[in-house]
Each structure stands twice: as C-alpha cells, then as structure tokens.
Write a structure and sequence with these properties.
The complex is a heterodimer of chains A (234) and B (419).
Chain A: E1 2-13, E2 16-28, E3 33-37, H1 44-51, E4 59-64, E5 67-68, H2 74-84, E6 85-88, H3 100-110, H4 115-128, H5 144-157, E7 162-166, H6 174-189, E8 193-198, H7 201-204, E9 209-214, E10 217-223, H8 229-233
Helix pairs in contact in A: 3-4, 3-5, 4-5, 5-6
Chain B: H1 4-16, H2 18-53, E1 60-65, E2 83-84, H3 85-94, E3 98-107, E4 116-118, E5 121-123, E6 126-130, H4 134-137, E7 141-145, H5 150-155, E8 159-163, H6 164-170, E9 181-184, E10 187-196, H7 204-207, E11 210-214, H8 215-221, E12 227-228, E13 230-235, H9 241-256, E14 266-270, H10 271-314, H11 316-324, H12 329-369, H13 382-409, H14 412-417
Parallel strand pairs in B: 6-11, 8-10
Antiparallel strand pairs in B: 1-13, 1-14, 2-12, 3-6, 3-13, 4-5, 4-9, 7-10, 8-11, 9-10
The chains are: A alpha/beta (234), B alpha+beta (419).
Chain lengths: 234, 419
C-alpha cells in the first residue's frame, strides 16, 4: 500500500540545515496497523507529514497504492489527500463552528458528493463511532474523547486508502485513550490500513507492528502481538 | 456559486463575529450612502435649474435686427432693415432640421403708455403678433378658452389670448372675459382665452401681462405689411441649433444685402449655447459627486479588505484543516472572495436602500414646505443604482483579492501548526 525508498528530508534553519530524515526505507501492506515510535525530534512527525502529502520529500521516492507521489502542486496534493488519506490529529482539529455531522461530511463535500448522500454517509460513520445522537452538537459541546471519535469518523468518511493518526491519544486520559484505540482497532479489523505516530508504549503495543525511529533512521521494525483494548478496559 | 453549502458557510463565518461584521459593513454602507446622496443632491439642483427654464424649448435661438455695421453692395453702413415674411419662407425652405419657426411682431410694452382699453379700464401691455407654435417654444397654461390656431392665422381673425394679469386689470373679479372685446390701439379684438405662465424666472408678474394675437391680424391691423420683428427658431432635438444657426444667418444676409462679415446687423440670443453651459456644469457636479463618493467608498473597501485579512489570519488553522481534508486552493480562494463580495454587496445594498429612504424623506419635506429655490425632486435613477452595484461588485473582488491570496500562501503544514 505504502512504499518508501531512501527518503531524505532536511529543514533549513537560517544558515544551517537540519537533516531530519536520513534515508528511510519502509513499506506498509494493506490492512496493517503500524505504530511509529520515537522520542521527540526523531523525525516521526515529519515522516507522517510526508506520507500525508502535507510536506515534500527532498530525496527518495514515495508510492501510495501504486501511484507515485511526486511533483505535487497544491491542487493535486489536495485532490490526493482527499482521495487517499484520512487524518487524525492530536488536537482533533475539528472546525469549531460546524456541528459534528458537518465536520464529518466535510471531506465528502470536497469529493462533490451530493448533499443528501453526504448527510447519510456522515451519519453512518458517526453511528459507527457511537455518536449518532451527538450529530447536531458543536465540538465545544463534546468531550475530548468524543471529539477524537468525531475526527476519526471524519477521517473515515472519505473512505481513504490509509488512515494517518498523529498522536491520536496524546491529549486524552488513559480511559478515553483506550476507547479511541478500541475504535481504531475495530476499523483496522474491517481491513483498513492505519499508521499511528505515538510515543506511548502501551498504545504502540495495541498495534500489530512497531517501527522505531531514532535520529532520522529506522532502528527497529518488528511485528508484535496485538494487545486488544477490550481486555484492558474491562 | 449557487451552492447551498457554500452560502451556509459564508453566513456562518460572517455571523460568528457579527459585531465586527457590522462595523466593517458600515464602511461600505456609508460610502455608497454618501455617493447616492451626493448624486441625488446634484440631480435635485439640476432639476431645480431645469424647472427654472420651465419647459422652454432650449434648442432655440431668438433673432432680431440691428443696424448694419459695414457698407456692402452699394448700400451704406448704419442703415436699418427689417426681416420680412419672405425671410421666414426662405429659412423654412432651405434649412434642414428645424422644428418650429415663429415670426413675431410686438406692439407696446408693459412699461409703456396705455395701449389697451376696455370700457373705462385701461392698461399698458405687451402685445405680440404670434404663430400658434409659440406655445411649444414658450410654454404657458391655457387657464380658460383656447390658444391661437391656424384658423385665426389664415382668416386673420381679430382674437386675443390674454394673460391672467391682463384679465385682472381689465375685468372685474366675477366678470366673464371670454367672448368680450378689448381695444388694442383702437382696434377691437375678441378675447378667446387666458393663460398663465408657470416656472418663470423672477419676472412672473410681468410675464402674465402679455396679449397674444394672430401674426397675420397683427400685421394687417397695425400696418406692418410683410415686416417681421423677431423670430424664435427651434431645431429638432438631435440637431443643436448652434450648429445650424449660421445657415439661417447667411440666408438673411443674402436677402438683405448684409456684408458676410457683419456681425452686428443680426442680433440673436442662443438659448441652446447658454443651456449647454449649464448642462456641462451639471456634468462637472456629477463628476465631483462620483469622485467624492468613490473616495469615501474606497476607505470602506479598504476596511473590508483589512478585516478579511484578519479573518483569514484567524482562520489559518481552519484553512489548514480543510486543506488536509482535501480542499483545493482554488476553492479556498473562491470562498474568501465570495465572503468579501457578499459582505460588500449586502452592506452596499443597505446603503442604497437607506439613501433612497433619506431621499424620499427629503422629497416629502420639499412637498410639504413648498418649492425651494433651485432644488427640485432630488433623485437617483436605475442607471446610477446599476453603476453603484457594479462598483460594489468590483470593490468586493478587489477587497477580497489580497486576503484570498494570503489564505492560500500559507502551506497546509504550517497552517496546521498555528494555534
């Protein structure tokens, strides 16, 4: 699904440049649930941003579902993001003047899905994350866990190839973290490919594979036995 | 453009901080309001001055004779001459684009000695021998009876149309004047109508003191032969009389052996030229109104642009989210532009509406308080409103352009990082 070869990325900070990613080789198969771990500054967020086409790579190649991702202009990048990717952020990033339903329907709007169909679909995904009754509520009326669930519903609404989650539990307490992870596992069970950036060991072990990043290179890439959340919660 | 979701969004954005939206809108509102009021005031002034011309056919010259200033073809200088009815026929025949040509003779004057008698009452009035067309060139309201007609001209009837002030001088309050006779220089004329001139400039008292009798009867009764004292010549609307008056003069010069360079012999007053001068003043006034109005509007537009920049800045993160979700830059740009145009047009329309209301109020006050010198019916027409709307749309685009560009200049990743 995802194939990255010899990826380099550096940032210019004034006169000196900061080499963040130093030759990453990495691929993800369909249906995987991958945790990307590393301390801050290890380059894990940069990697995710490049995967999410929010940032450009300096060197190397990136193929997503067989499509080479290169020479992107903004219009094309937006189109690819809309078609291929779903984003979940640490700070939820819901649009605060739109209701939960409108937030979920937003990516569908960019796909030019008809209004009625959009509403139905959005409601379906809200139902999947258990927030159907909250459809008309504004984000400010939701708890942190609920917001993240709306965000996940929004990410899934466009039926993306890959779900990218940047510290999805970073702003949540452990109980709600587990709820969110439970949801992510369920979505994965349905066959969706998910990448999660995290620095929490327990969250990482709820995935099926852990990739460790350190100083811009992959130091460890192993399959793990997945810890199912359901056991933890009860 | 006519997408319900997009409009929902525009409304959502503009109403989130509606007090600020209101203040911003006020800038544009005020600009267009001032523009409308200034244009209306200019129009009011124009209407006032046009009303002073009182429907007089302005595309008109008046001609009379003076003495020749140059000797020519054996005739001496300083000689006197008169227009003849032959001149009138020649002009009619040879000059194209004329609408009315009224030769006129005049007898007496309201300042002169008494020339009109009825019974024991006498008075001094201006008596004109005129053609029926004169009422088109110098309008008057016929308050009773009728005006002169071609029957009077052809049959040389001794009939007279008198001003209401003539009537009040010669007749008692309840006396019927129509069908009675008055003596003008000892010749009896029957009164067939009375008139009242409206909208006369200053001289309204004396303007009602004229007596109109048929030109032909005048010539016969007072021994003028084929002489013509004065001519009032009006051209059709799309031919300025100023352009063809030289043709008329040349015919007269030819007929009376006047030197071609003699500028004194033919006296004339070109009403069209005077009127055009006034008209060009209105043009200048309108230009000033537009200039001032648009300047005020401009500061409103800059206000909108400014606020849109702030809105974009505030929404940087939101725009980042949208772009992460797959909204293209063009769509974002269009959104910002439409917000700006929408805000401008709505506030502008309110300004136009409020301006119209104020104009309505002024008109009402003018109606109640009676006529005011040189100010009648201030108004703006649909053309002006259309122009104002066009200005608004262009300004909205202009105001949104810089903010829209700045909205898509930030890269999505940076936009997402901002708090």
């Amino acid at each position: 699904m995802i194939k990255i070869e010899n990826l380099h990325k550096s940032y210019k900070m004034g006169s000196n440049s900061l080499h963040v990613l130093k030759g990453i080789n990495f691929s993800v198969e369909e249906g995987e649930l991958v945790a990307i771990m590393g301390s801050s500054g290890s380059g894990k967020s940069t990697l995710l941003n490049i995967l999410g086409m929010l940032d450009e790579l300096d060197e190397g190649s990136y193929t997503l579902d067989g499509v080479p991702i290169k020479d992107l202009n903004e219009t094309k990048a937006a189109n690819y993001r809309n078609k291929f990717l779903g984003f979940v952020f640490q700070s939820f990033n819901l649009i605060n003047y739109k209701s939960a339903l409108e937030n979920v329907a937003l990516p569908l709007y960019y796909q030019r899905v008809k209004r009625k169909e959009r509403q139905e679909k959005a409601l379906k995904y809200l139902d999947q994350v258990g927030l159907k009754e909250w459809a008309t509520h504004l984000p400010s009326e939701l708890s942190g866990g609920q917001k993240q669930r709306v965000a996940i519903a929004r990410a899934m609404a466009a039926e993306p190839k890959v779900l990218l989650a940047d510290e999805p539990t970073g702003a949540l307490d452990s109980t709600t973290s587990y709820e969110v992870m439970n949801l992510i596992q369920k979505i994965n069970d349905q066959g969706n490919t998910i990448l999660i950036v995290t620095h929490e060991e327990d969250i990482a072990h709820m995935c099926k594979r852990i990739v460790h990043l350190k100083d811009g290179v992959i130091v460890e890439d192993k399959k793990v036995k997945q810890v199912r959340v359901a056991q933890n919660v009860q | 453009m006519f997408n319900k979701d997009r409009w929902n969004e525009i409304l959502q954005v503009l109403t989130t901080n509606w007090f600020r939206t209101l203040l911003t809108a006020f800038g544009v509102f005020w600009g267009i309001f001032i523009l409308i009021i200034l244009l209306a005031a200019g129009k009011g002034l124009e209407n006032g001055i046009r009303a002073d011309f009182g429907g007089i056919a302005t595309n008109t010259i008046f001609m009379w004779t003076r003495t020749a200033s140059k000797a020519y073809k054996g005739l001496p200088k300083d000689r006197e001459f008169s227009y003849k009815t032959g001149d009138v026929a020649d002009i009619r025949e040879n000059v194209e684009g004329l609408q009315y040509l009224s030769p006129r003779n005049q007898l007496g004057n309201f300042r002169g000695t008494n020339n009109v008698v009825r019974g024991l009452k006498t008075g001094a009035f201006t008596v004109y021998g005129d053609y029926p067309e004169i009422i088109k060139q110098d309008p008057m309201n016929i308050t009773s009876g009728r005006f002169l007609n071609y029957g009077d001209i052809n049959e040389k009837r001794k009939v007279a149309v008198i001003g209401i002030n003539v009537k009040s001088s010669l007749f008692g309050l309840d006396e019927e004047c129509l069908g009675t006779y008055i003596k003008i220089n000892d010749v009896n004329f029957m009164v067939v109508g009375t008139y009242k001139k409206t909208n006369v400039n200053g001289d309204s008292e004396n303007a009602q003191k004229n007596i109109y009798i048929p030109f032909t009867s005048f010539s016969q009764a007072f021994n003028r032969g084929d002489k013509v004292g004065r001519m009032a010549i009006t051209a059709v609307d799309d031919v300025p009389i100023t352009n063809i008056k030289d043709q008329i003069f040349n015919i007269v010069r030819e007929n009376h052996r006047i030197h071609p360079q003699d500028t004194r012999a033919i006296g004339h007053f070109d009403l069209n030229e005077q009127f055009q001068r006034v008209v060009s003043l209105f043009g200048a006034l309108e230009l000033i109104a537009y200039f001032v109005g648009i300047c005020v509007l401009l500061s409103g537009i800059i206000g909108v642009s400014n606020i849109m920049l702030i809105v974009v800045k505030e929404r940087t993160k939101e725009i980042g989210i949208r772009r992460a979700l797959g909204e293209g830059p063009r769509s974002i740009k269009r959104q910002i532009l439409m917000e700006s145009i929408f805000l401008t047009i709505i506030s502008g329309m309110t300004g136009i509406a409020f301006g119209a209301l104020v104009i309505y109020g002024i008109n009402y006050l003018l109606d109640v308080s009676g006529p005011v010198m040189m100010f009648v019916n201030p108004s703006v027409n649909l053309g002006v409103v259309t122009i104002a709307l066009l200005i608004l749309i262009v300004s909205g685009l202009f105001a949104g352009f810089i903010p829209a560009n700045s909205a898509i200049k930030v890269r999505p990743i940076e936009a997402l990082r901002t708090e």
